[in-house]
Structures are given as C-alpha cells and as structure tokens.
Amino acid sequence: MKFVKKSKKGYTPTKEGKKEGQSPPDVYKESKKNRVEFWAKIAREEIDWIKPFKKKYSQKKDSFSWFEDGKLNLCYNALDRHLKKRDRPAIIFIPENQDEKKIEISYKELYKKVNEASALLKKKGVKKEDIVAIYMPPIPEALIFMLACARIGAAHSVVFSAFSPEALRMRIQDGGAKVLVTSNYYFRKGKKMNLSKKVRKACKGLKIKKIVIDRKKAGKTFKKKNPKIIEPEPMNAEDLAFILYTSGTTGKPKGVMHAVGGYTLQAYTSARYIFNLREGERMWCTADIGWITGHTYTCYGPLLNGATTILYEGLLTFPKQDRFLKIIRENKVNAFYTAPTALRMFAINDSYTQKYKNNSLKVLGTVGEPIDEETWNWFFKKIGKGRCPIVDTYWQTETGAAVIASLPGHGPFIPSYAGKPFPGIEYTVINNKRKKASPYEQGLLVQSPPFSPSLIRGVWKNKKRYKKYFIGKYYNASDNAFYDKEGNFRILGRSDDIIKVAGHRMSTAEIENVIESLPKVVEAAIVGKEDKIKGTKVIAFVRTKSPISEKRIIKEVSKKIGPISKPSKVYFVKDIPKTRSGKMMRRILKGLLEGNEIKNTSTLINPESVREIKEIINKN
Ligand code: WT7
C-alpha cells in the first residue's frame, strides 16, 4: 500500500495514508484552541488513573506541573491494562548470533516476569523513590527491570553499556543508587563483550547491591508460573519516574528528571500519533536503552499502546549489511526508527536493498541529528520503496518524547525538515533580540509555555542548572533552527558546546577535562568536524608540557568516558586561540578544520596561533 504521494515540497499522505494515521484529522486545529485541555482530554480518556486528577496544569516561578493531584502507575499503564489481550507479543528479542533463537514474550508472560523482578528488587531493599542503576545490553531483562522499577515506584537510572567503568561509577555515585542491575556479558559484532569486569572496576569500594543476569539466559529468566503479584505503587503524577544522565556544556553529565504523569501521557501519545502504533502493531526502534530514545520508543511508548517492540542485541549490519532488513522481514516490522548515522552506513554498497520488498513497513523514522537530503531520499526510496512517510523526529533527553515531527496522517514530509510541533506543544524561533524571528530567519529554538507534559522537571541534585534551561518565559532547547511560511521547522544543530557524534550527544568540556587530566597535557580543545558516516567526528587540539602520543590520548578518552567519545585525530599545537577573557575559540578551530579563511582575529589574545594551527592542519 502506498501511504504518500509527491507534492510541491516533499510528500503528503495519500487517502490510505490518512486512514492509517492515528492522530485525529482535526488534531492541529483542536489542540490550538486550548493546549492544556488537549492534553488533559487524552490523559482522562486514554491513560488509566488510580486517582483521577482535577488540576490540569500549573506554573510557578521556577517550576510547572501536570495533573498534580492525580495518581497513576507507569507500569500498570504499560502492562496490566493490556492483559485482556494477554497472548500478544510484547517483546520480540533477537540475539545478534543467528544460531540463537529469537524469543517472543507475550504480555501475560512479561507481566509475570515484571512481578517477579519487582519482588526481587523489594527483597534487595528497594523502596519507592530509591534509585536503581541499570547497566545492561538490550536484552529483555533490561526492559523487565525498567518496568519493575516503575511498578514499585523506584526511579531507574539506565547507563549505556558501552560507557566506561568511570562513567558508570560517576552515575552510580551522583544518583546514590542502592542497587545495580547488570549482566555478565553480551555480544557485539560477534565478539563477547565483558561487562562483569567493568562493573567490578566501577563499584570498587562502593556499597551497592548487585543483581547480575546471565546473558546465556536472556529472555528466559523469571520463569515462575505463579509469581507473587506486587501491586503497582500509586504514584503522584509529579513523582520522579526516572533519571537519565546526558551531556551538558560543563564537564559533568547531568541527571535529567522526568515525572510519572507527564511522561506516561506523552510517551503514549507520541508513539501513537507519530508511529501510528496501536494494539498489535510492531515497532523497531534501534536505539539502545541507554539513551532516551530507547526509553521512550523501545520500552515505554510501544508497551503503553499495547504494541510489540522489537529488541535487537547487536550491530545492525552484522554479520552482513542486510541484517536489519532481514529482521524487518522476519518480524513484519511496521514502524522502523533509526538514526541518520545508521542510514549512512546502510547506504554504502546498497545493491542488497533490491532483494527486499519491505512490504510490512508503514512508517519510517529518524532521530538524533539533522538528516541531510541525500540520506532522507535514500531512506525513502531504498527502504520505504517510495511508499512510506518519513517522520524526522526532533527531541532531546530533556523533552522525554518527540516534540517536533510530521504526523503520518497529516504530513508534509519534506527532506531535512522535522516538520511542525507536536499537537499541544508550541515551539518558536527567537533572534538575538529575543524577538520572534520571521520565516526563514535563523535563531534559537525555544518552547513556549504551557510546557509539554514530559519536559524535564529538574536536574538531579542541581537546582541551579535546571534554571539555566529557561530564558525569559521560554524553555531554551539550545538548538539553532528556522521555520518556513507553513510553520515547518528545520533544525540546524546545537547552539552550545555540545556535539553530536553518530547521533550521540557529547560535551566538548567533558572530553577536554579527561585529556587535561593527563599530567603531560596543559590544555585541550575539542571540536566537531563533518564526517560522511558519523555526521560529525571528534577532533582534539592539544597543548602539552612534554611529549605524549596521540594513541595515549585516545586511549584515555576511551577509558574514562567510552569509545564513542574518542577523538579520530589529535593535533598537537603550541597555543590554542583564545579571547582576552581566556575563552577557547572552538569556532575558529572549526573554521580552520573546514579550510576557511579566518579573517577577524582581533578579539584574540594570541592571533599568531591561528597561522600555526593552519600549517599543522595542512601538513597532516
Ligand atoms: C539533541 C538532543 C531525543 C532523541 C535522541 C537525542 C539533536 C535530535 C534531531 C532531529 C535535528 C536533532 C538536537 C537535540 N537532535 N533529534 N530530528 N533533527 N537534530 O537526544 O542525546 O538528548 O540529543 O539532538 O541537537 O538538541 P539527546
């Protein structure tokens, strides 16, 4: 079936496309009348409450809240309420190794497993409001424990399994986690990756209880026929659902806090409207559970809608490039959601795509960084076969769910444009005078109040930093953007010192701190350089006291943060361009990397450094 047709600018839905759409036909018009009531209506009618709310939205000086006096449970909404259709698969787990069988877990089975895991957490002493760290590969038990935390009212803090022991340790300590749930190993690119060793290192001297899941039993643990049922904890809508650490502009990652009510509502609604999810539909979001995308569209979004989530353990192109298409075919995936960097990898030597019809696909999605037109068109033609809408979903760890995206039943789908703000949410662009920008004028992307239900409620143990998210009456996204005459947004990239490498968010300051901790290094500056596959790659400029090798520096970053942050090139320089106030001019370094002529160096305290660095870059 064809869901889209060509239009003047990009594509629009066909009649079938409109019919397939899960957002009401008048959703934009209706939601604009009263944004608070728009959300409240869905919350009342489609979310299950233990105690219904009366208060909808309120805003004070430094805070806002949704459904303040209501009580609900996220796990109940994701599991218990689907038990009538108990035999439908909730999770389909696909191990990387093709000799290992895939495992389907029905809603009924998942319900039992989550209850058993909840009892185990309780036995370990976990109570409401405690933090539980989860350091696991994408295996069903990771989702089982996320749901178990939600069930008993504990907040999970998931840590990406490729992060280093140091990164894990920092997150355990800052969060004050009582229990760590982990696994002994997992497979990646056919290799056995040892997690136990990293955990041992991370937890040295820490008082923390551990639950270790044997990878060999992935998807097969918690088998009790009649486990004890743990009643879902009634949570206030504003209670903490979970924290998730993400990079900020300083060296230290921040724990982004999400509230139960708003998160449940928006994860549910966005998954339904953007991916057309409903009971029985199958969604494959390729993001690891260590990222917010994995939280919202691998775990909670599909389950809140009674859909099936596909969970794949390994590399998308293992053992051969067509692995992801095989998975789509074998599991009849309806919505496929991935990152531009993965798509650029798929597009290399792509004749294999001709062998696949991809008939099951209805919606394609991308996330994490701006998608270039070439990659968009490749995705549209080679994977969607010209039939499927592409939803380019813009959001952040802080927004908890997608906030700007075209809806499949509405369109338009324009390459490189994310589209319109999600119904009930208002974004705009402001210029440096803090005035609303006109169409096509570039500026800062901001969200206007009333704020979206799943927007960040706090930074863990750091009130000051939370305040920094707001400028004037707006929530500042720290992204540059513009919008066209029809109100479609195009995202241009970060406005701060954060770079996105293969869709992963990292702070230049964090990497700089690690390099600067080496005794032989005086200072370091990190900038992003354009890369064909990763979108951006990490480049380091380093000033040293005494010689040190490039390898040593790369190793240190890998060890302290994780391999995803390691520089692909280190330039040793005599001086790093700085302003009189001592601010490193990463913008100039970036310009030099791109081969630009740097004209105005008058604000620099050391203008001669620019010529020297130019020579070094040219030589290498
Ligand atoms: C940053 C947030 C939440 C999804 C995963 C990333 C960039 C995200 C898009 C998009 C252009 C995008 C922004 C944003 N970004 N989606 N569709 N188009 N840029 O979450 O790690 O918190 O990163 O990713 O720069 O601020 P995150």
Task: Describe this entry's structure for a reader.
The chain is α/β, with parallel strands linked by helices and 620 residues long. The chain folds into two domains: 4-483, Rossmann fold (3-Layer(aba) Sandwich), CATH 3.40.50; 506-619, 2-Layer Sandwich (GMP Synthetase, Chain A, domain 3). It contains 18 helices and 32 strands. The strands form nine sheets. The chain has a seven-stranded mixed β-sheet with strand order 7-6-18-17-19-20-21, with helices on both faces. Strands 13-10-8-9-15-16-24 form a seven-stranded mixed β-sheet, with helices on both faces. A hairpin with a 3-residue loop joins strand 30 and strand 31. The model has no long low-confidence stretch (mean pLDDT 96). It binds 5'-O-[(S)-butoxy(hydroxy)phosphoryl]adenosine (WT7). 5'-O-[(S)-butoxy(hydroxy)phosphoryl]adenosine is lined by residues 246, 291-293, 367-370, 392-397, 418, 477, 479, 491, 494, 500, 505. 5'-O-[(S)-butoxy(hydroxy)phosphoryl]adenosine binds next to helix 10, strand 21, strand 26 and strand 27.
Count of distinct structural domains: 2
**Largest sheet, described in full?**
7 strands, mixed
What is the correct CATH architecture of the largest domain? Answer: 3-Layer(aba) Sandwich
Low-pLDDT parts are none
Instruction: Return the average pLDDT rounded to an integer.
Output: 96
Strand order of the largest sheet: 7-6-18-17-19-20-21
The share of residues in extended strands comes to: 15-25%
Tally of contiguous helical segments: 18
Note the overall shape: globular
Q: Helical proportion?
A: 25-40%
The CATH H-level homologous superfamily of the largest domain? ANL, N-terminal domain
Alpha carbon gap, first and last residue: 52 Å
The name of the CATH topology of the largest domain is Rossmann fold
The computed structural class is alpha/beta
Could you give the count of β-strands?
32
Ligands bound here? 5'-O-[(S)-butoxy(hydroxy)phosphoryl]adenosine
Q: How large, in whole angstroms, is the Cα Rg?
A: 24 Å
CATH C-level name of the largest domain: Alpha Beta
